[in-house]
Design goal:
Elements (H helix, E strand, L loop, with lengths): L1 E8 L10 E7 L8 E4 L15 E3 L6 E4 L5 E8 L9 E6 L12 E7 L4 E4 L15 H6 L8 E4 L43 E7 L9 E5 L10 E2 L9 E2 L6 E4 L7 E5 L11 E4 L12 H8 L8 E8 L8 E8 L9 E10 L3 H12 L15 H20 L4 H34 L9 H46 L6 H15 L3 H27 L5 H8 L10 H4 L12 H18 L2 H8 L3 H6 L3
Parallel strand pairs: 1-8, 10-20, 16-17
Antiparallel strand pairs: 2-6, 3-5, 4-6, 7-8, 9-11, 11-18, 12-19, 13-14, 15-17, 15-18, 19-20
Length: 622
């Protein structure tokens, strides 16, 4: 049966005193003497202890004494406040039989009512990616574990919708930065509907009155409306966004919904289907009573819902476990009283090399599984992907014409594709010759001929892929995240972005920002030398192991830069009796006959030539 005062709540009363329940042990008959009643150990689902669910005023857990001249004694159960979500719990008292008395009722139960609580959940064990958290005990156990770092999410400066605008500013009209965005023309914000945001689940207990409680969200916020930028958005003056002042943003809707850089405001009843920015509030401020229902509507759920989902975006790299999201509530609203709270940890990491590479592949339209240089030039995918690679370099240069390497790489496509096409013609002519003068056309399958021809094709296509894998992702990272995307990655993992490579990009970035063309060319030339010395030299060295291939390769190479001389036409002492497979000679030719003439072109001439079709560029080769 229930005790005489059978309920105790975890929450303190209006005076701040803990709530209690009472077991009353009574007797009938003679009360002249004290009576000791033996007890079984307290049972039930609640745990006893100063740091557990409850305490009692028993001095001896095995018995209780009814004083002389009294017909009862009370055992007081004091509930302990905690922030755990555990539901109602029970304390059961059972009396033991004894020869000194006869038992009537021998047991009673007290219920400790679960107090008001709030719960904040995120995928703290990092096993769900962008999906909802499991709401599991394992997540709960580690959500504030500093060494583990909490939920790890990538800074949102990629380009999920492939519109060449970084995700963290995508859809926020640049022209509105000064005056502030409005809803007058929602179509301006259509392009931020394809970003991946992380769900953050907020819950409040049944013990909280949704209409009267106040709550606070506190985190290292970055207001999207404060985003600033420079540049006019042209290829020669590209838009560059300033490093955000904060780290995180919470939104009322996910990345598949149109989001506006406007704060959630309960007074405006923003349940119109758009996503709104939820600001961080300091601990001495809070969302007023009644705001929860408005926030629920803005999140697309019922105003009476006790669980809603916000969506988290990271805009700047943090240290491990540096960022906290705190959710606290005052069940009594502005009237004062106890505070219930929860928090989770977040680590914002940079986009990794492999993720940027995937972005570059996606931007180029390349299916990586089809990219197999070993299949040679006759594979339809090889021709298609080669065109996609060089179109990607063209698009990079068209976005930011200060990325000179990409423009030169686009022009180099003519030399590579021209060489591969010439090799195809050599095969075809060889087959015709064999059939006409040498007997069976099957002699085109001569092992030696096929060995050097296949080796040359394979090497050219492999080197093309290796260049893309090394430098395409870096250009995509710079276009989308600026220099900080590369710098963040170096600080996060220097094996992915080395100090030497970062130094090259620092030169390029400095040249762009200071409008120093000489410095800009110096940085891009360093990228070109890296390509030739560190990436391609392995392939060239392999060609030197096959007789005649260095000669054939040198004969095939052509200078794609108008105004620059070809290999043999240069007639310099450095090139005399050398082959393109020799790095010092090759670099001397590239620096003098490619970089030099390219540097003399006007911006408009470069853009005009780079923007031409591949066939037109090939037709223009000397």
């Amino acid at each position: 049966k229930r005790a005489s005062d059978g309920d105790a709540g975890e929450s303190p009363d209006a005076n701040g005193d803990p709530d209690t329940a009472t077991f009353r042990v009574t007797r009938t008959g003679d009360t002249d003497d004290a009576l000791t009643v033996n007890l079984h150990p307290l049972a039930g689902t609640a745990e006893i202890g100063a740091t557990k669910d409850y305490t009692t005023d028993l001095t001896d857990a095995t018995s209780v004494t009814i004083p002389a001249d009294e017909d009862y004694v009370d055992i007081v159960v004091t509930a302990k406040k905690d922030d755990k979500i555990e539901g109602d719990e029970t304390v059961v008292l059972c009396l033991k039989a004894d020869e000194d008395y006869r038992l009537g009722g021998y047991s009673a139960e007290v219920v400790i009512k679960d107090g008001p609580w709030v719960d904040l959940d995120i995928d703290s064990d990092n096993n769900n990616g962008f999906a909802d958290p499991d709401l599991s005990n394992s997540e709960e156990a580690i959500e504030d574990d500093q060494p583990l770092g909490g939920k790890v999410i990538a800074v949102n400066y990629a380009d999920d919708d492939l519109d060449n605008v970084s995700d963290y500013v995508d859809g926020f009209s640049y022209s509105d930065v000064a005056t502030g965005p409005t809803l007058s023309d929602p179509t301006r914000f259509l392009r931020n509907e394809n970003e991946k945001l992380v769900p953050v689940v907020l819950s409040v207990s049944d013990a909280i009155d949704l209409s009267s409680f106040a709550f606070t969200l506190t985190y290292d916020a970055s207001d999207p409306a404060s985003t600033s930028h420079s540049g006019s958005g042209t290829a020669s003056d590209p838009t560059q966004f300033a490093n955000p002042s904060g780290y995180l943003r919470l939104w009322t809707r996910g990345g598949n919904t149109r989001r506006l850089p406007i704060r959630f405001d309960a007074a405006s009843n923003r349940g119109d289907g758009y996503g709104y920015y939820v600001p961080s509030l300091e601990s001495n401020d809070s969302f007023a009573p009644g705001t929860w229902s408005k926030l629920a509507e803005a999140c697309g759920v019922s105003p009476t819902a006790r669980t809603l989902t916000l969506w988290l975006e990271a805009v700047k790299k943090s240290d491990k476990g540096q960022l906290k999201i705190k959710f606290s509530a005052n069940p009594n609203g502005d009237a004062g009283g106890g505070i219930v709270k929860d928090e989770v940890l977040v680590t914002a990491r940079p986009v990794t090399k492999s993720e940027w590479h995937e972005e570059a592949l996606k931007k180029a339209g390349i299916v990586n599984a089809n990219w197999r240089p070993e299949t040679g030039w006759f594979n339809v995918f090889s021709k298609q992907i080669t065109a996609q690679v060089y179109d990607f370099y063209r698009s990079v240069f068209q976005q930011n014409s200060h990325l000179q390497w990409a423009g030169m790489a686009r022009l180099a496509s003519a030399s590579v594709v021209g060489a591969l096409n010439q090799m195809f013609e050599i095969r075809l002519n060889f087959a015709i010759f064999q059939a006409t003068y040498g007997g069976s056309s099957s002699q085109v399958n001569d092992p030696l001929f096929l060995t050097w021809m296949n080796r040359l094709e394979r090497n050219l296509l492999t080197m093309q892929k290796e260049i893309f894998e090394d430098l395409a992702w870096q250009h995509e990272a710079y276009l989308m995240g600026g220099f900080r995307a590369l710098s963040d990655l170096n600080a996060y993992d220097a094996t992915q972005m080395t100090a030497a490579n970062l130094a090259t990009w620092a030169i390029i970035d400095n040249g762009i920002k200071t409008q120093n063309y000489t410095v800009e060319i110096e940085g891009n030339t360093r990228l070109l030398r890296r390509e030739q010395e560190e990436i391609l030299d392995r392939g060239y060295n392999e060609l030197e192991t096959v007789p005649l291939l260095p000669t054939v390769m040198t004969l095939l190479v052509k200078n794609p830069i108008p105004g620059g001389l070809g290999w043999w036409a240069a007639e310099t002492s450095a090139l005399w009796m050398t082959y393109v497979t020799d790095f010092p000679a090759r670099w001397n030719w590239i620096e003098q006959q490619m970089v030099g003439p390219w540097s003399m072109w006007s911006d408009s001439a470069k853009m005009d030539f780079v923007s031409r079709s591949l066939d037109d560029i090939i037709d223009g080769l000397p």
